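Record type: monomer structure entry
Structure origin: computed from sequence
Chain ID: A
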Amino acid sequence: MKVMIVEDEGFIALELERIAQDAGHQTVGPVSTIEQALAHAPRSDVALVDLNLADGLSGAQLARRLIDRYGVDVIFVTGSPESVGNGIEGALDVIPKPFTDDRIAGALSRAQALRRDFGGSNAIM
């Protein structure tokens, strides 16, 4: 599965990339803005998205576009999970920072199972 890393903090982006690769996934990015993420969206199956990106509090806007336009499954990874409230329609999960390897790998595994079982983007939120 191709996992896009959308995170503006370099160390966190590298950690997410490592976890995804260790779980057997290919990674796209990391990227830190909406523009960069949309450029890579056609080559992505799933995106790990922070809410606060280099171009501001734009993660929720980005998620909506990734889900609606590109069929990319979105998993939020954020230090402000309360900002997502009950979730954003179409998002698969909200993982609070700090996160664990197992929490990220587990969410990616569930996303992969949903894609396999349902043939594309299928939200649980």
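Annotation 1: The helical segments are 10-22, 34-40, 59-70, 101-118.
Annotation 2: The longest helix spans residues 101-118.
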